[in-house]
Amino acid sequence: MNKFTPEEIEERKKTIFDAMGKRGQKQILKKGYEDWDPFAEPKDPIDIRKDKTKRTSQSLIREFLSHIDHDEYSNTFAQGAFEMCLGIINNEEKIKGMFEFARWYDALLKKEGHGSL
After folding, report:
1. Residue 74 to residues 65, 69, 91: CA-CA distances in angstroms?
2. What CA–CA distance (Å, rounded) separates 17 from 11?
3. Is the pLDDT of residue 94 over 50?
4. Contact at 8 Å (CB) between 58 and 47?
5. How far apart are CA 27 and CA 115, in angstroms?
6. Which of 81, 78, 116 is nearest to 99 (CA)?
7. pLDDT of res. 1
């Protein structure tokens, strides 16, 4: 989009927004129209997307589960950990909230002498 003026880019952005359905517009307005970039490059496919440590979701979950005795966790536990992993890599608000609550609750338990989860 470098060959367009800011005014042309804004005009094209508005045209794209106006052509969208009400549901799509609502999602964009919820996140903020000013921050929305319809010209951004698409994200990497999920299997090659990496976190800040340059690990894929598969390598992260494998590494995490290798530190836990296989007899100590269920498929549901592993599935929950993997969902958390994907949510963190994808920077999902819901997962960030869950993560921050878990950290806060763990600290509260320790502070009140109950040990950890």
Report:
1. 11, 11, 26
2. 10
3. yes
4. yes
5. 41
6. 81
7. 46
